[in-house]
Each structure stands twice: as structure tokens, then as C-alpha cells.
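Sat 14:20. Reprocessing the chain from the morning session after the first attempt stalled halfway. Input below, unchanged.
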Amino acid sequence: MKKLIAIIGVLSMLAVSIAAPSSTISLAWTPGDNPTGTQHLIFWGVASGVYTNSISVPYAQTNCTVSNLVSGTRYYFVAQETDGTDVSAYSNEVNGKTKINPPTSLTIVAP
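Finished this time. C-alpha cells:
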């Protein structure tokens, strides 16, 4: 049980930034001090508290970019930490909206 207590609340800060291209959002976080941590789990969805997608990143990594998102859509993110057996509570929730893609292939059709 001591191990579980060590990883609860480990991700004290999750930050979001909107990056180009517009279908990506970059995240950064402060890891916990779990000596046996193996991964960070990143969850996201389009409604607060409802996370329908996830990825995992190596424990030593403290940032990632989530890609293939829909242009002009707000996403909500949380993170967890795991040691392969136990999983921490969710981090704080952050949100960001992807940029709206500009029109492409603008042409003059009549002089």
C-alpha cells in the first residue's frame, strides 16, 4: 500500500499550448517523484471529465504532442502516472482549442 500512496497526486501541473499545425495540441507536466514510475498516461476528450482517447509516454518524458485532432475543437486533458501496477489519481484538467484551419487553394475565377 505504501507504493500506491507514493504515486497518488504525482502530476501536480499539466499545461497546454496550441501548436501549429492546428490539428495538434502540445502538453507539458511536472512529474511526481515516484522512483518506480514507468509511464505517464495522457487522456483527452471533447467534454470536461469525459476522456475517450489516451496515449502513454515514457516516464522520463514530461511533454507530448497530441495530433490528428479536429480543427476548431476544444479538448480536455488529464494525466496519470503508473509504475506498471498502480496508477495515480488524475492530474488537474486543462483544456485548449485547436486553431481553425484557413481556407486553402484560393484562386481568381474571373478577371
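The beta strands are 13-19, 24-30, 39-45, 53-58, 63-66, 74-82, 94-97.
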